[in-house]
Design a protein that fits this description.
The complex is a heterotrimer. By secondary structure, chain A is mostly helical. Chain A has 13 helices and 2 strands; from the N terminus they run ααααββααααααααα. By secondary structure, chain B is mainly α. Chain B has a single domain, classed as MetI-like (MetI-like fold). Helix content of chain B is 76%, strand content 0%. Chain C is α/β, with parallel strands linked by helices. The chains are: A mainly alpha, B mainly alpha, C alpha/beta. Chains in contact: A-B, A-C. At the A-C interface, helix 9, helix 10 and helix 13 of A face helix 2 and helix 4 of C. The structure holds adenosine-5'-diphosphate and magnesium ion. Magnesium ion binds next to helix 1 of chain C.
């Protein structure tokens, strides 16, 4: 197991490097002089030259790249002109807020989506099943930004139950914090929740007709345990894969959700920075999110092996032979 | 010999036609898929006949008639803050969704399939380099990649197509590569190869046609994703340039007048939802009709 | 005087989907005494597994439903028990093992976990005691170094070993009845004999009655006391092993016997199988279900369903032409076939 983890971590390095290269190349795709674009049309020639110097844009491309990687390795994401701060600090300010939002959404998605999928599968073709199937089908097709806007319209504007923007700080009390969190996390949870319900349903349907489920029943095990212990653990592997992938769309969806609810996370930071033409911040934040995703996927892969002893086995066999 | 080939070809075509017919019949029988097909057809009709269907020119402003409610002064769904007819803008907005949705997927499918075929067919170094790059692209949340590309490329229809298209490349590369590996395994290809066929011939005549079913299903689903992405970009003010009507930008504008006139935000979002739902239903049905066991 | 353990009366099982109703089991009756073995034979699709799973009330509902009949197990009417009472019987008084040991064990739990679960479902004992018992069971079914193997996953066992584990699970609570649904079909020929030997030996030790489902008559001759021959959801013939072996009466049974591999069969010659295929169970059959494939069929066979008739002591057969006073000549049928072949 330890060996496997180390192998996976080493395997991750080229991917990380490629991610960095992609971000680097994308920002060099800016047509014309990036410094001029960043400063806008009113900027003087001197100002543009100064920024070009600062960003190292006058150096040859490969030198720029090595500087960039070198800085990254030291945790230096560069400095923001508009925010007057190191970008690493900016990210560290915002990152926890995005994590709070993403984790709450993930929890909602799992707590509702997975049981809904299980119930749907165990009562196939019942009204309950049709309801879950229909709602999750609509859910995966949902434009989340629209859902967010509609939730604001009904629950904030019309009913006044929840605030429409911002994040409640813990200092104002847990209740305020939760009240601010509910709409954004529900919005963000919609797609993963529907996705989980769908994938849980289909993999449970595959599993409940398996012989070992019949064996469990023939042993006199209670139906609840048959489903939750014997069937679900087998249906869990595909679910885990989807969960790993959904982390990516959670982080992506966070950009839209944070914009709608003015949630001070990394997504809002990116959109803010884009409006301010602060490409360095965009570059740093996007890179950071991608790095997070690579690491999360590593964790999911490792979990995958813990859950599924069979995968473990075949790789052991491969290792010894 | 040639006549034999000709009869063989005719047989293959006949079989294909039969299969197509049965796939189509399955699709129609599946009520949800039929609904999806209906939505797609409606979308095409709307986009093509937009000038006929629309009651007003989509960009015609009239500040004296801003923010009218549905049905007021001959405006079916009311007007926006510039006094433009919401219904007509929704109708025209279907064009943007359809164009970007299809063009971006074609873009992504073209380059993605190319890379996937190279990686899967030739394997070895090609495979590891290409797939590493694809893994790298996969590390970016889809919409974030599109957003980043749009900030660099700038607003506009073509740029939106390119940005969403690029974001689609790694997905297609993976799907096609997987298919190519499957097909390559089959004895059939081994025989063809041993007969000394050229790579290009094997790829175009055998590998690609055999990967067609999953590819078409994946492409259908991707169109839905691309439409949502375009709407998201426009919603963030990064997509289509105003004043062109796009459902995403209408939603963004409608958001500012949520209290005064919620219809604009409501209807533009509904248009997106129904379109995407329809395409997804059709894609689901297509998969079930072609091969229910297909893993996508 | 043998004591009765199980009595099945006119069991009917249907699968309903949409407008079609498949009558998978259509009036099966038999009795089984304690420590007795009964074999159920028939082509695949004849309703053997459905009959067996119905005894434990484990057919998937919906679409399945036990539409009629009674199942008495030690005077308890199983079809009238509550779900909870039924669970107390499963794995405890009646156990079941399945055809394919590679799929009947849960791949994500250790075999120990799966045996212990069975024990602890029915006996209120500590985990530790249960584990000791599980190790003992593994030893009993002939698994070497059971202390180590108990912590392994099913995929780390061979097919034969897995079936041994299944037997250990099934016998862990000392059941009075073991239902074995083609327990050797998926195994290598050499392993098959070992598993059958093991089952026979353990039966003596545990005093269990066995319902042995198989399409291999050889297995029946070796292990059973009684035989039930099933065709298209019906029992067409039943009797003791000796009766069926020495004096089979139903043309379908003849067909089954002919299609068995025996030493005398010349390998170059293809194994004779019964021509035709079983009827569609979703269609109502008016006459004898076997009529369409029967070389002796007359008009009456297509219009009237034959009754079960006792032709000799406890030897029942359902055929219009096999009664105490009427007899068909089996030779005749074989001659017919020879002509067709020639
Ligand atoms: N879950 C099910 N749903 C619908 N029909 C079933 C189901 N299980 C069995 N059947 C029907 O019951 C018939 C008998 O099946 P089975 O008892 O498995 O045959 P055997 O075990 O003798 O090979 C089959 O032909 C099939 O049509
Ligand atoms: Mg069977």
């Amino acid at each position: 197991m330890g060996k496997y983890i180390i192998k996976r971590i080493i395997n991750m390095i080229p991917t990380l490097l490629i991610v960095a290269i992609i971000v680097f190349l994308i920002t060099r795709m800016i047509p014309g002089d990036p410094a001029a674009v960043m400063l806008g049309p009113q900027a003087s020639v001197q100002e543009v030259e100064k920024l070009t110097e600062e960003l190292g844009l006058n150096k040859p491309l490969h030198i720029q790249f090595f500087d960039y990687i070198g800085n990254l390795l030291q945790g230096d994401f560069g400095n923001s002109l508009t925010y007057n701060q190191p970008i690493a600090d900016l990210i560290m300010d915002r990152f926890p807020n995005t994590v709070i939002l993403a984790i709450s959404a993930l929890i909602i998605a799992i707590m509702i989506g997975v049981p809904a999928g299980i119930i749907s599968a165990t009562r196939q073709n019942s009204i309950l099943d049709y309801t879950v199937t229909t709602i999750s089908l609509i859910g995966v097709s949902m434009p989340v930004f629209w859902l967010g806007v509609m939730l604001v319209l009904y629950f904030s504007v019309n009913l006044g139950w929840f605030p429409s923007t911002g994040m409640g700080s813990m200092d104002e009390g847990f209740f305020t914090f939760i009240r601010h969190l509910i709409l954004p996390s529900l919005t963000l949870a919609t797609i993963p929740m529907s996705q989980f319900a769908r994938i849980t349903r289909s993999s449970m349907l595959e599993v409940v007709s398996q012989d070992y489920v019949k064996t469990a029943r023939s042993k006199g095990v209670r139906e609840f345990i048959v489903i939750c212990k014997h069937a679900f653990k087998n249906a869990f592997t595909p679910l885990l894969t989807v969960m790993g992938l959904q982390i990516s769309s959670l982080l992506g969806g966070a950009v839209l959700t944070e914009t709608i609810f003015s949630w001070p996370g990394m997504g809002l930071l990116i959109i803010d920075a884009i409006e301010k033409r602060d490409f360095v911040v965009v570059q740093g934040t996007v890179l950071f999110i991608a790095l997070i995703f690579v690491v999360v996927n590593l964790v999911v892969d490792i979990l995958y092996k813990v859950v599924n002893p069979k995968i473990n086995y075949s790789s052991n066999k491969g290792g010894t032979s | 010999m040639t006549s034999l080939q000709a009869t063989e070809a005719a047989e293959v075509m006949e079989r294909t036609r039969k299969r197509e017919r049965s796939v189509f019949r399955k699709l129609i029988k599946n009520r949800l898929a039929a609904f999806g097909l209906f939505v797609i057809a409606l979308l095409f009709v709307t986009a093509i006949f937009a000038p006929v269907i629309a009651t007003h020119p989509p960009n015609q402003m009239d500040v004296t008639k801003s923010l009218l409610g549905p049905g007021e002064a001959g405006h079916l769904l009311g007007t926006d803050s510039y006094g433009r007819d919401i219904f007509s803008r929704l109708i025209y907005g279907s064009r943007v969704s359809l164009i970007v949705g299809i063009a971006a997927v074609v873009f992504g499918a073209f380059f993605g399939s190319f890379l996937g075929v190279i990686a899967g067919y030739f394997g070895g170094k090609f495979d590891s380099i290409i797939m590493r790059i694809m893994d790298g692209l996969f590390a970016f949340p889809f919409i974030l990649l599109a957003i980043t590309l749009m900030t660099v490329l700038g607003q506009g229809l073509v740029n939106a197509i390119i940005a969403i298209g690029i974001a689609n490349i790694p997905g297609f590369a993976r799907v096609v590569r997987g298919q190519v590996l499957n097909v390559k395994e089959s004895e059939y290809i081994a025989v063809t190869k041993s007969l000394g066929a050229k790579h290009s011939r094997i790829i175009f005549q055998h590998v690609l046609p055999n990967s067609f079913a999953p590819l078409i299903v994946y492409a259908t689903m991707s169109v839905a994703g691309a439409i949502i992405s375009e709407a998201s970009l426009s919603f963030l003010g990064l997509g289509i340039q105003p004043p062109t009507a796009s459902w995403g930008s209408m939603l963004q504008e409608g958001r500012n007048f949520l209290v005064l006139n919620p219809h604009m935000a409501t209807f533009s979002g509904l248009a997106i939802l129904i379109t995407v739902l329809g395409i997804n239903l059709f894609g689901d049905g297509l998969r079930d009709a072609l091969d229910p066991k297909m893993k996508l | 005087m043998p004591e009765e353990l199980l009595r099945v009366e006119n069991l009917q099982v249907e699968f309903r989907s949409g407008l079609t109703t498949t009558k998978a089991v259509n009036g099966v009756s038999f009795t089984l005494n304690k420590k007795e073995n009964i074999g159920i034979v028939g082509e695949s699709g004849s309703g053997k597994s459905v009959t067996a799973t119905s005894l434990l009330r484990l057919i998937p509902e919906p679409p399945g439903i036990i539409s009629d009949g009674n199942i008495f197990f030690e005077e308890k009417d199983l079809l009238k028990l509550s779900k909870k009472e039924m669970r107390a019987i499963r794995g405890n008084e009646i156990s079941m093992i399945f055809q394919d040991p590679s799929t009947s064990l849960n791949p994500v739990y250790t075999v120990g976990n799966q045996i212990i679960e069975s024990i602890r479902t029915h006996e209120k004992i500590s985990k530790k005691e249960a584990k000791q018992k599980a190790i003992k069971m593994l030893e009993l079914v002939g698994i070497p170094s059971p202390e180590k193997r108990i912590n392994m996953y099913p995929h780390e066992f061979s097919g034969g070993m897995r079936q041994r584990v299944m037997i250990a699970i099934a016998l862990a609570c000392n059941p009075k009845l073991l239902i074995a649904d083609e327990p050797t079909t998926a195994l290598d020929v050499t392993v098959q004999a070992q598993i059958l030997d093991l089952m026979k030996n353990l039966q003596d030790e545990f005093n269990t009655a066995i319902i042995m489902i198989t399409h291999d008559l050889g297995v029946v001759w070796e292990t059973c006391d009684k035989v039930l021959v099933m065709y298209a959801g019906n029992v067409v013939e039943s009797g003791t092993v000796e009766q069926i072996h020495d004096n089979p009466m139903h043309p379908y049974t003849w067909g089954l016997l002919d299609s068995q591999i025996t030493e005398s069969v010349n390998n170059d010659e293809p194994l004779p199988t019964i021509p035709g295929s079983p009827p569609d169970l979703s269609q109502e059959v008016r006459g004898c279900p076997f009529a369409a494939r029967c070389p002796f069929a007359q008009d009456i066979c297509f219009s009237k369903k034959p009754e079960m008739v006792e032709t000799e002591d406890n030897h029942y057969v359902s055929c219009h032409f096999q009664t105490k006073d009427k007899r068909l000549d089996r030779k005749e049928q074989q001659n017919d076939r020879a002509i067709v072949k020639g």
